[in-house]
Amino acid sequence: MNIEEYISSGILEAYVMDQLSPAERTEVETMATAHPEIRKELEKIELSMESLAFATAVTPPADIKDKLMAQVASAPAAEKATPVVEMKPEGSFGMLRFAAAASLIVALGSAIMAFNYWYKWQSAEDRLASLIAQNEQFADNYNQVNQQLDDIQNAVAIMNNTAYKRVVMNGTDNSPESQATVYWNEATADVYLSIQNLKALSQDQQYQLWAIIDGKPVDAGVFDPNGSNFLVQMKNIGPNAAAFAVTIEPRGGSENPSLETMQVVGNV
Amino acid sequence: MGLPNYQIDQDQLVAQMKAREADAFSYLYDNYSAAIYGSISRIVNDVDVAQEVLQDAFMKFWDKIDQYDSSKGRFFTWMVNISRNLAIDKLRSKEMKKVGKTDTLETYVSGIERDHLNHLSIDGIGLKETLSSLRDEERFILEMVYFKGYTQSEISEEFDIPLGTVKTRLRMGLKNMRNVLQVE
């Protein structure tokens, strides 16, 4: 900026008369430091103001000095170290303080209530989630029980159906305690198996049911001894079966029975 | 005219004030109270209130002397600004609302001549002549700012004069005044 223009802008006069904002004051002080001619102009303005003040001086009443000197003298020396704190006008500051305190309390109250409701909402969410889970569990159990009931009803219907021949297979010398039963409908060729007692097998073995037709073994399907079903449907077996037997075979079954492993056998 | 030549160096006075020397305060009062009181009473019309402001101002000089920074201006400028601000605050407080800024500069000048003539009485008369030598618009701004305590922006708003114009006129008024007063 042009120094002449800056000086003639009137900002220096305003500075001397303390009429500038803090930012403007800093600007003038920076300019005065950087430019000696501005510093000089400021001094001129100050001196002219000072001259004006002295030219228009008014002597105050004499008793004022006495009061002031008494005030200065009464101030203890220790007060020198104590910074003088300017008191704010009580009224507006008091109101402000009250308003601040009030708004703080309101804010605090709101925060507590908000947390309280959040907490309640959160625990309600939790309880709802656990109720939904329980409900699903009940539904599963119901379906399972329902399924078992259906199975039992079907089994009972088959057992009570006179069209099915009941063939009890008793344990051989290999396993005298074992027992299983075949329900065979000769007309429809449906075969169902119910296990009363068969020993557990290793993972690579399975039981295999055979029907003996015309002296020859016919595959009727493989099964595991620990199946949960009350009755297991096996492969259909046509007419003229004379007996049923169960052998132990490699998992997946064999084409021809390993007769030496026969567990149970029963004639039709 | 110019400054009283008997005054001790302002820097020295400030140093003694900071050392809490009551003698320095006494010296300060003897040499500056009239100039300060003149500045105050031009803003505050009521004599009792003006005296109250004068006391407050001098106590503030004493209490706040550590805040004075000589790199930012002369000691007198610092004092007169504190006094003017105290006077303006007082003028604007509720109790002073009804007094208002109504008197003209002439009242003050004639008041100085008539009532409170002191060691600078001749200067008081000289001031009137000095002021009358200014152009009307410059004198008006000077009167408002210097004698009534208006800020430049207040004048701009209240009398609908662009702020830049206010600044320029104040500056020219002061400059002309300086020439007449032969300050250098």
Please explain how this structure is put together.
The complex is a heterodimer of chains A (268) and B (184). By secondary structure, chain A is α+β, with helices and mostly antiparallel strands. Among the domains of chain A are: 3-57, no CATH class; 164-267, Immunoglobulin-like. Helix content of chain A is 48%, strand content 21%. Chain A has 6 helices and 8 strands. Chain A has an 8-stranded antiparallel β-sheet. In chain A, strand 2 and strand 3 form a beta hairpin. Chain A is rod-shaped, with a radius of gyration of 55 Å. The N and C termini of chain A lie far apart (123 Å). Chain B is an all-alpha fold and 184 residues long. Helix content of chain B is 68%, strand content 0%. Chain B contains 9 helices and no strands. In chain B, helix 2 packs antiparallel against helix 3 (47-63), helix 5 (105-114) runs antiparallel to helix 6 (121-132) and helix 7 (136-147) packs across helix 9 (163-181). The model of chain B is unreliable at 1-6 and 98-125 (pLDDT under 50).
